[in-house]
Amino acid sequence: MNVGIICEYNPFHLGHWKQIVRIREDFGADTGVVCAMSGNFTQRGSFAALDKRARAEMAVRCGADLVVELPTVWAMSPAETFARGGVQLLALTGVDTLLFGSECGELDPLQRVAEALLDPLLGEDLRAELRSGIPFAAARQQAVARRVGALAELLQAPNNILAVEYLKAIYDQRLELHPLTVLRTGAQHDRFAEGNTRSASELRMRIGAGEDVSAFLPRAAAEIFAREKTRGRGPVLPEALESALLSRLRMLPQTAYNALPGATEGLGNSLYRAAHEEPTLDGVLAAAKSKRYAYARLRRMLLRFQRLLALEHQLFADLLNQISAQIVRIQRTASAVAQLDVLAGFAEPAMSQKATGITNASHYENYTVDRICDGDDSTYFWSHGAMWQAASGTTGYVGLDFGEIVRVRNLYIATGDEGTDV
User: Fold this and answer.
1) In the chain, what is the greatest distance between 2 CA atoms, to the nearest angstrom?
2) Cα separation of 245 and 41, whole Å?
3) Rounded Cα distance, 297 and 285, in Å
4) What digits encode the pLDDT tens for the residues 151-205?
5) What distance lies between CA 137 and its chain's CA centroid?
6) 3-state SS class at 364
7) Chain centre distance of CA 37
């Protein structure tokens, strides 16, 4: 059995880890877990707190077997498109079950709402509700309520909304995926809670305030977070990029705003004016906001300027329909997982892929060049000035020979010995 999860892991916390543990408890230790994860941009129209590779590493070290990237044109889209892209991607990997959390925790009510949203006549009722001037989300809920009554209130909770969209995507595309929902426990979205299970949004707020969130992450994920912070690769805070984004927005012509996907009913013009009048990004969003448009939609539009400048409206729409991936269907075996770890940079390559040391200089005593890549920092290659000069009259060098052209991801160099001439 192979279970798929659509996720952002922004960051990977204890709730995510418990979900993977529960999968194996319920379906067996040999159950494969495949994650379709957004990259460096998120569905709500913001930057991920950590690089996608670090977040993928968190997932793999905490129990996932494979993490595939959900392309940005899906990841940074409204719930319906986000869900459709994730479901399509997981279907390509060959998973047979789609697992998702929901505030409801029951599949049948969610299925009834999904079926109501797929009703071909829903559009007419939705347009009628919109003409009354209410926001889109409220209009949709009322149109659905005409079909399923109070169950339409499920559309007020964010994870229920995504759950319904996952089901719609499965039904609409006639995919052979078995849907399974689990009750979302612990912290609710955008709210603070007690205990060690907190929502990703709460953790991002705490990170932005400079707090230590390691107590709310699995140990392996906490180690990766600390490593990325130490190396200056995170966390990524939106305010750190505000000046650059505002500068870019003010350089663009008004036609570029109107060409954005979703820039209808004068929204492009509103964003253009706000970008030239407001001193902050929050100010731009607030000035362009109306009852019809959620903040997340506006944030996504602004970020598309940075990520998708070359795409015209129709090209963007075409990409959503045409993007596909060729995924090798990986059996969950020790050798396959080990190969994935190496390819992803999470583990050392096999010995056949390691380099040998090379030099044109002679060595002192037994401090030979093969010591530079023996994996032991206490041993070293030793040569000195006279030996370099005697190297065939050429400039001395020390290098690594892999035997073929290879992609080098991480190179660690230790040189010298403090307090000595080595």
Assistant:
1) 90
2) 14
3) 10
4) 999 999 999 999 999 999 999 989 989 999 999 875 554 555 557 888 899 999 9
5) 25
6) coil
7) 5
